[in-house]
Task: inverse folding
């Protein structure tokens, strides 16, 4: 490519609505252009990256035996009604009526359509397993689109759907996709981590997320550096730390006037925060009747609501109101505890709390806390459950070390769906006995356009983006010095350009005639990972200057050896 | 590709709603699957063809200097309001509201968005010319979607937009695109014709359509076999045939009771139809005042309403009502003519009619016609205009022969738009003097998915589709006989498959284990252009059987020479 025949448009400053680095740099590098809230034109440089991402995905999906098709963007409401998602999905499902008043969804994903294809096309177990995928524009009408391509409304996604005859087959298909995803993210040249995830609303029996590691990531990833354990914070199991000691203190009601937060009580009493218990009052209403639950966490731990949902009886909990707290505990928020509640409440202690002795908790009386509280002695033994987010240093659930936490950006997700969709839509196959059975389904997504944002969040410096070779808009840029006045530079540039292209290198030559400073700044901002400077001074000594995007200084390389040198750098 | 890892699903019968051959064959061959009216899933075989079509387009667009980007599907109404198309376009523009009630269009084309990109990105004449294109899903809410991919609602289009500093530049960009289109359609391996077109509602100064030639085509294409003249029927200029002779007959009012059609009058009077004149009464209303026009055509010719629109004063015509005919001509429909009208009307004669002598026309009196009518003698000389469709044998407008007509399917269109969009949207650049000037624009479309339908309408037989090599889903199919029982067949198949792949041939091996008849029928229906049969009998003599899709019989080819033979067939 010649820069003079390409479109490069860089900015000194990012627009003010670009809050995060990747959004700022993509705008400044001219890779995307905002058309509306969460809707972007992919400019030529950005599109080149998207195509490289798509091609790597496509190659690995094909190698893994998945078959590409292309499902429509505009999908009839009737299909979405069959699975109930037409009603279940909120306003993020973009709905549209045609000229005859018939309703359609603009696809956010394609479970319904692929299940519809399969229920009419697949008849026999002999056609299984099968995995269909497409790479297609998606629309999700986000309440608050932001962060550029990270949380846009219109975006590109690869979504794949596997169909199997039984659970074992589905798990095999799932494992194949897991492996393909690992290859895909490895080929991108990004640091990533696959973590076990909670299946959440989509149902099914197993799921993993693939995250690009970045300190700016929205998600906390839990892993064990000495084993293969990894899960997102929602799914990571928190074990108790330590064992319960015998009581050594008397239960003492202590005045803590105005101290409603554990941190304030700890400071007042000069007792470390780890000895305090935080009480969270919940209400569950069913058939007009209220039941009260009191959750207990160590004061320095965080509640995990997804785990709370899994405690028997707490699927539909809400936080208690002040009036309810008064009724159940006879006090005001800030002074609750498991001892001497006004009404009987179900006390659920986090595993760590259940192992505590001589702890501090609210006294169910305004301006008072108990010190030296102990299970069994001062109140009944509580129900015990995993209620909290893990923290660094917690024991790994696999018993093979302690947990660490890092931040990530979710770019892929694999799900074992089971028969949720196939049963709702009557997608069956005939087994060997000629009997119809529902298809076992898996689904597998990669956020194609989101990869760009995530890759940048992981790879940038104060000059701009630093693309990994595999997904860079160009692998290499040639920067000739004084192209308009030096015949020698011109000739060597053309020759090198031709030789590099012949060697299969994706090279752009900057023939725009800019000053060196402006030229270098553009390519550093855009993030092309390799650069060759062609200047008369070097040429007279038979040399060119090579500099990697992360290199501190340039390296002199003989003209004759440059193509081989670059091939070496690119591993080609 | 191995057929066992691909998805092939053929049908004996097409669904009853498939009216035309290409729709029937695409459904039977399992290339598309209907999701809703005018909305199709592109199944794996169909998608392969689409990708090949897209890649050829992309390569040639890039070679011609156009730059690919990707504009959004969901576009804010505000942009469409700037050009007035939000109101001008009818219900075929699919409109949607987001969760905040803001209005959007699902793009049918992208003139507004590209002009918006350009008005903020292009500043100087130095950045011109530039040509941006994208290949993207489009939606047009057709009143009556039909013919499969030929007139669908959701479809894929390549649309390109050129921007120039002046008309001369625009015409050059246009010529470059015309040439690129010629290369693209040539590479598809389709018989096609570029014809001059009327610019119609879109405005501007010049346009051509690219048609795939097919006897089933909706459009009539006019061309001169002995010159380069070609135009669509709407735009082809109809010259007068012959010169006006001197009158030889007296004007005679003749009784023609009940004969309101020229054909009936001709039969009654035994005068050839070519001597009759057909009268068409028009009304133009402006500021509450009605003006009457009488158009005259030779009885065997057809009115061309687009040409009528261009006659001064007739931009906003309608056909006269019976009451208006009574008022202006004093008679009823079927007996109108230019002689002795009741009110003065403007008579506009087609060029051919203006050259007629001794003609038959209505007498402006029920049940009577004039025979032997002559211009100048019996009524005033008429205004003369080109009002009709050309017919085979008409003189070519370039004076280099006579015209022929064939049928075509429009698959591409190039337009000189001028400044219509740039002026409406304030898209200017600074010229050398630093003065802002509106950009001169061109636009260029190719209906990607429509190409599939058009290619099939041109290339099929009673067994199925016959794809040209360049856009076939696979170039070649290997059909091994008895793969499960012959070690010799298995080994040769694997070796040949590997050798063909290494030679860069897009080959599929049918390892499904079907009977030969069923196997051959599938590939003939799908339309793979080349086939090799691998059987024990031939192998024992060192031969394989080759058959081209249009060949009547197979050819024996030595095993060792087969790869070279196929490369020869494919011109590789």
Result:
């Amino acid at each position: 490519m010649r820069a003079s025949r390409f479109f490069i448009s860089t900015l000194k400053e990012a627009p003010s609505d670009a809050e995060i680095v990747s959004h700022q740099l993509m705008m400044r590098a001219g890779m995307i252009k905002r058309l509306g809230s969460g809707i972007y034109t992919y400019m030529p440089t950005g599109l080149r990256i998207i195509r490289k991402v798509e091609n790597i995905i496509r190659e690995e999906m094909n190698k893994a035996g998945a078959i590409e098709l292309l499902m429509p963007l505009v999908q009839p409401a009737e299909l979405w009604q069959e699975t109930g998602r037409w009603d279940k999905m909120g306003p993020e499902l973009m709905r549209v009526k045609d000229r005859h008043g018939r309703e359609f969804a603009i696809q956010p994903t394609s479970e319904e359509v692929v299940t519809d294809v399969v229920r009419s096309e697949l008849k026999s177990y002999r056609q299984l397993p099968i995995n269909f995928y497409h790479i297609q524009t998606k629309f999700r009408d986000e309440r608050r689109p932001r962060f550029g391509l990270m949380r846009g409304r219109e975006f590109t996604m690869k979504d794949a759907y596997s169909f199997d005859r039984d659970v074992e087959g589905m798990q095999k298909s799932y494992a194949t996709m897991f492996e393909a995803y690992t290859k895909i993210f490895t080929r991108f040249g990004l640091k990533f981590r696959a973590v076990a995830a909670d299946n959440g609303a989509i149902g099914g029996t197993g799921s993993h997320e693939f995250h690009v590691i970045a300190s700016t990531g929205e998600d906390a990833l839990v892993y064990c550096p000495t084993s293969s354990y990894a899960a997102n914070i929602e799914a990571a199991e928190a074990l108790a730390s330590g064992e319960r000691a015998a009581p050594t203190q008397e239960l003492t009601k202590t005045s803590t006037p105005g101290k409603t937060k554990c941190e304030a009580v700890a400071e007042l009493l000069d007792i470390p925060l780890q000895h305090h218990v935080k009480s969270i009052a919940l209400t569950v209403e069913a058939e007009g009747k209220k039941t009260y639950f009191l959750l207990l966490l160590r004061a320095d731990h965080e509640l995990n609501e997804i785990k709370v949902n899994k405690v028997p009886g707490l699927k539909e909990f809400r936080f208690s109101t002040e009036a309810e707290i008064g009724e159940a505990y006879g006090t005001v928020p800030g002074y609750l505890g498991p001892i001497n509640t006004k009404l009987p409440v179900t006390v659920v202690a986090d595993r760590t709390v259940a192992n505590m002795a001589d702890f501090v908790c609210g006294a169910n009386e305004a301006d008072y806390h108990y010190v030296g509280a102990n299970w069994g002695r001062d109140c009944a033994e509580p129900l015990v459950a995993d209620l909290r987010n893990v923290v660094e240093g917690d024991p790994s659930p696999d018993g093979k070390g302690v947990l660490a936490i890092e931040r990530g950006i979710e770019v892929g997700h694999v799900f074992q769906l089971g028969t949720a969709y196939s049963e709702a839509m009557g997608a069956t196959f005939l087994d060997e006995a000629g009997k119809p059975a529902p298809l076992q389904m898996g689904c597998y997504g990669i956020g194609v356009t989101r990869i760009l944002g995530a890759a940048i969040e992981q790879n940038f410096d104060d000059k701009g983006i630093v693309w990994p070779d595999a997904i860079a808009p160009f692998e290499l840029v040639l920067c000739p010095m004084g192209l308009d006045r030096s015949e020698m530079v011109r000739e060597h540039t053309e020759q090198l350009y031709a030789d590099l292209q012949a060697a299969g290198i994706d090279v752009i030559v900057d023939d725009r005639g800019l000053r060196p400073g402006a030229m270098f700044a553009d390519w550093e901002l855009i993030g092309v990972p390799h650069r060759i400077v062609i200047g008369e001074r070097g040429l007279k000594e038979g040399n060119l200057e090579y500099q990697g995007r992360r290199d501190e200084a340039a390296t002199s390389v003989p003209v004759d050896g440059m193509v081989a040198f670059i091939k070496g750098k690119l591993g080609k």
Observations:
- Chain B touches chain A through 49 residues (CB under 8 Å).
- The longest helix of chain B spans residues 167-188.
- Residues 187 and 470 of chain B are 7 Å apart (CA to CA).
- Residues 3-237+405-456 of chain B form a domain with the BirA Bifunctional Protein; domain 2 fold (CATH 3.30.930.10).
